[in-house]
Structures are given as C-alpha cells and as structure tokens.
Amino acid sequence: MTILSPTARRASAVSLTLAACFITSPALASASEAPAKNGTGAGLDQYYRQHLGWGSCVTGSVDTTGRDLDKAGVQCADVTVPLDYAHPAGGTITLAISRLKATDTHHRIGSILLNNGGPGGPSVQSPPDVRKAMKDVGARYDIVGFDPRFVGRSTPLDCGWPVGTSWFSAGTSRAGFDRQVALQKSLAKKCRTHDASVLPYISTRNTARDMDVVRGALGERKISYLGYSYGTYLGTVYTQMFPGRYDRVVLDGAVAPADYSPRLTKGTERASEKALSAWAAWAADRDAEYGLGRTRAQVLTTVDRVLKASASGPLTVGTGSDTFRIDDTQVPVLLYSSIGDDTDPTRAFLAEQLAVLSRAARGTAPTPLSPEFAATLRYLLHGAAEPSGVQAAVLCGDVAAPRDPEVYWRDIERSRAAHPVFGPMTNNIGPCAFWDRPREEPTQVRRDAPVLIVAATGDPRTTYKSSVTLHEQLPGSKLLTLKGANRHALFGRYGNACVDDEVNRYLATGKLPTKNQTCVKRAGEASSSDLMTPKALSAPMGASISINTAAITGGAAALIVAGGGTAVAVRRRKTRRAA
What backbone phi and psi angles, to 5 degrees, belong to 498? Predict the structure, then answer.
C-alpha cells in the first residue's frame, strides 16, 4: 500500500466517487473484535501493518502549531484507514497522528493515545502538555495524539454552515423555537448537500476501529488511553469492541453510554444552574470591577434581565466590523460555555461578557469588544470561516434522535418552569432530527473494564451522576472523585495535586486503587490556569468548538463534505482507494 507523505497529502485536493451504504454488514461486525495483534482478517491486514513515515509536524508557512510541536520533539505521521470497514478495499481516508517518544526507554511502558473530547476535538497538538501533566511517568510512554476521522489535520469535512455550532436555545417563545426548527433543518441539509456520501461512516464505532488500526500500525500489542469528556465515551466503546487490546485507561469527565445521544445536554440543567450560581457569587465579590450586582441574587437578576431584554429584541454589542446582534437563543450558549470551568480566568471572561450584555440591555451605546469576546461571537454567529458540522455528524451517526419537532417543544415547555435559563437550550431540537438513521446500533456495555474514572462532583457538562453510572456498569473500574469543583476535565488541567498524583500513580504502576478515592478542591485552585486557554466557547462535551487565539487558526474540529450525490470533495488530503 502506497503511503503519501503528510506534506504531500495535506496539500492535495481531489474527489472520488464513493457509494454510501446504510446497511449493517456482517463484515463490519467482524472488524470490531478479532484476536490478531496487527490484523483482523476481513481484508484489514494492510492497514494494521502499514509503515508510518514519521517526520515534521509543519504543514505550511503559517503552521505555528506544527512548528511548536517540532520544537518540543514531536514527530507526525499519517495513518491510512478504510472509509468503510465493511468494504476495506474501497475508499480510504487518512488520520493525522503525532508522537512524543519515551525518553526513559529502559523503563518504557508503551504508547498512550489521547482524545480531548468533542465529539470533534483534535489532539495532535496535545503530547507536550500531557507529558508535562504526567510528570516523571511521562518519560516512560510514547505519547500519541490523533485527530479522529474528519477532524483537524485528518481527512476533513466541512458542511459549510453559516454558524459555528448547532447548539442554541429555543428562546422564550414558540416563534423562537420555530426559527430553530428551520435553522436545524437547514444545517442538516447543508451537510447532505456538501457530502452525503461520507456521512454514514462518521461514527464513534468507526473511530474506535481507527484507534485499533493506529495501535497496530504503532506495533503495540496493547495501547493505553487518556480520554476527556466525549473521549470517555470513545474509550468505553473501544473497551467493548476490542477487549484485550488496551492497557491503562483513564476516563476523565465520564459519560455513561446511556446518557450519550444527540440530546447529550438534556439532564444537565440542575448541575448547570448550580455552576451558574457559584459563578454569580464569585462575580458579586467583584462588583466594583464588573458591576453585575453586590450579591449572588443580584447577579442572577442581572442574568435574567439580559435574557428578557434579548428576547424583546437582539442586543447590539461591539463596534465597526465587530458589531454583533445577540438574541435569547444565543445568550444561554454564552453562559453555558463558561460555567464548565470555575477557575478565575474563565469566570472573569464570563463576567466580562455579561457586563457588555448588561450595558446593551440598558441601552448604553456599544463600545469595542475584547479580541477574545469578538472571536467567540464571530465563531458562534458566523462560523469565523472554520470547518463546521463534524460534531453533529458524529452524534447523528451514533444514536438516532426524535424526528418530531413537537417532542422537543413539549420537553422545552416542561423544563422551562424549573429551568428557565438552560431548559430551552438543553431540550432544544438539533440537526439530528433531520438526519439519516445511524448504520449501527449504539454500543452497549456488556464487558467489564478495569479503567480509572475521574469526575468532579459539580461538573455541569458530563454530570457526576453519569460518571457514577459508568462506574457501576464497569465493576472492575475505580472512581476518583474531586469534591467541591464546578469543573469539566481535571487531570493535568485543573491543578489539583491529589487528582494528578492518583492518575499518575495508576499510569506508572498499572494498578488501580484498591477502593474508590476522593480528593477535595483546595483554596486557591479556582485561580489555577488550564493547560488550554480558558477563554473559550466550549462545546457541550469538550473541545470541538473551543474558541481562543489558537483555535481560530486550526484547533476547531473540521469536516468537509461536498457534492450532494456520491462525489466527495476533500480539501488538503486525498481520499484514495486502498492499494
């Protein structure tokens, strides 16, 4: 099998005719579980045994991420995988991977694969930060980042959306919900129009199959894994599909499979409100700086006033080319995006946004926005020229969503009374209501897996209850709890020494704690800085729509789909037929 160099493939743009297949094939099932080290039979040996051409991570003159990776000693390569595992001799796509090799080779443990969440979050850029988080034990691992299929530097897909995300609130009225129905239907149509032929192959189960090909191509009998947020679901799916092929597995901010669906924020309302209330208390202590209220109740009243004003008519913020109009379908998204992190920088960013919106609600003349806030709104409202649709494609490809808009409206109305801020958002309709049904049934937990689950009690994204449920489904697992934090994703990112030490002890020894462990948030940890820039608009489960100065230049998830029939137009990388 001929493998093009990463540079050559990223520079290419070609199209290929592929047949879409929506029927689950016996060959597809056989590709899920097989005992061979570097192959499965079923025509996949050429993928498992491929040679990886490791080299520079730089893809072009403006690739600052690639240059930083090169300086850190990271090398990059491309892995070829079949587009359709049921027909592995057909079209192929490429996965971008990176590797920071172990320096303590005498005590090398193996390779650890990373996933930052999403769905749709890249991790090629992550090995240096993870090496730092792993401290001494990091030197004993080859740390491997990868961009999942159709994400980032891998074969991409872009639905050409006019907005950066499909996650919006239904607002305060039926008219607002009806506009959301029209928007979400149009987003689904754009994905089908751009590239309907690849959509059936975008799923977590196929990403898990890709992971196993990566394992084989790396020459590893077993592979360790560190997954955050959505990455915990991907990790769970891998343990179920490929038993015996994983070593040490850390699932941070875990979601139970039963809680994973296109409506993955449904049920998080109470945790989100608690996190918002905690932020309001923080902002009240800084009323002199932000002017949002001197008490928690006053700050929450300011939030309500902004929502009501945005429902009466869009609020105008910013000046010049960075002028934006924000209504009641968008304000809750801004709130939700920041409450998953209770560190001071993120809380300050939310306070800054609310101060701007509060002045707009009072009719004050707009003033220039900070670059971070302008970038956030540019992405949320206009897409900021970033590839779009990958997160929806994964969710819609994994689990079917209700198709009747009235199901969503009834849920919104039931939730609105108790949860007026977040209920209309977490229960809102999405593009999956207008998507073709998934090719495969969702993964069920039928095998135990001795993994380490990490969770904060106040996590508003993947709730603590969901982590507990996953732990109960995997009796051989252990649960590491951080009490007192309203935080999503902990290890190496939050600064809690207890959590970091427990995870690193497991990664070093391979031995889970003898019983579940509990850590406590210490004073001052809310001021810790994340390894990732905290001023971000975050997707409901992680990194895929993070907005910061780095993400604008390539950190967001990327999917490109072109041609409404069978033509597939792929930017930057070739979609090829297997040799």
Answer: -60, -50
Is the separation of the CB atoms in 452 and 506 below 8 Å? Answer: yes
* Secondary element (H or E) of residue 76: strand 75-82
Q: Which amino acid is at 282?
A: W
Query: What global pTM score does this model have?
Result: 0.87
Q: Tell me which amino acid residue 346 is.
A: T
Q: Which residues pair with 470 in a beta bridge?
A: none
359-398 burial, b if ≥16 CB within 10 A, otherwise e? bbbeeeebeebeebbbbbbbbbbebbebbbbbbbbbbbbb
Question: How far is it, in rounded angstroms, from Cα 464 to Cα 456?
Answer: 6
69, 6 contact by CB (below 8 A) = no
Give the CA distances from residue 152 to residues 9, 319, 557, in Å, rounded to whole numbers and listed in that order. Answer: 14, 32, 5
* pLDDT of the residue at 271: 97
Pair of tokens at residue 59: 């893809």
Coil vs helix vs strand at 231: helix
Query: What pLDDT score was predicted for residue 39?
Result: 52
pLDDT value at position 489?
Answer: 96
What CA–CA distance (Å, rounded) separates 23 from 218? 31
Quick one: pLDDT at residue 524? 64
Instruction: Write out residues in the chain with pLDDT < 70, as ranges.
Output: 1-41, 524-579
Contact 158, 389 (CB under 8 A): yes
* pLDDT value at residue 386: 86
**What is residue 40's predicted lDDT score, i.e. its pLDDT?**
57
- Cα(first)–Cα(last) distance of the chain, in Å? 5
Give residue 338's identity as a one-letter amino acid code: S
Cα separation, 215 vs 37, whole angstroms: 9
How many other CB atoms are there within 10 angstroms of residue 174's CB atom?
Answer: 12
Q: Which token pair is 55? A: 């080299």
C-alpha–C-alpha distance, residues 524 and 263, integer Å? 35
Q: Report residue 228 as tokens.
A: 């955050």
Residue 191: what residue type? C
Cβ neighbours, 10 Å, residue 181: 17
CA 483 vs. chain centroid, Å, equals 24
Q: Which amino acid is at 288?
A: A
On the CB side of 427, CA atoms within 13 Å amount to 25
C-alpha count within 13 angstroms, C-beta hemisphere, residue 574: 16
- Predicted pLDDT of residue 449: 98
Name the helix (H) or strand (E) containing 81.
strand 75-82
Q: Which of 475, 75, 457 is nearest to 466 (CA)?
A: 457
Instruction: Give the span between the Cα atoms of 7 and 246, in whole angstroms.
Output: 31
- DSSP string covering 132-151: HHHGGGGGGEEEEEEE-TBS
Are 290 and 352 a contacting pair, CB within 8 Å?
yes
Distance in angstroms (rounded) separating the CA atoms of residues 296 and 531: 29
pLDDT at site 541: 52
pLDDT of residue 538: 43
Residue 172 is encoded by which pair of tokens? 């305060």
Q: Give CA–CA dist 427/90, Å, rounded.
A: 39
Per-position DSSP letters for 349-383, written without gaps between them? HHHHHHHHHHHHHTTPPP-PPPHHHHHHHHHHHHG
Environment class of 311 (CB within 10 Å of its CB; exposed 0-12, middle 13-18, buried 19+): middle
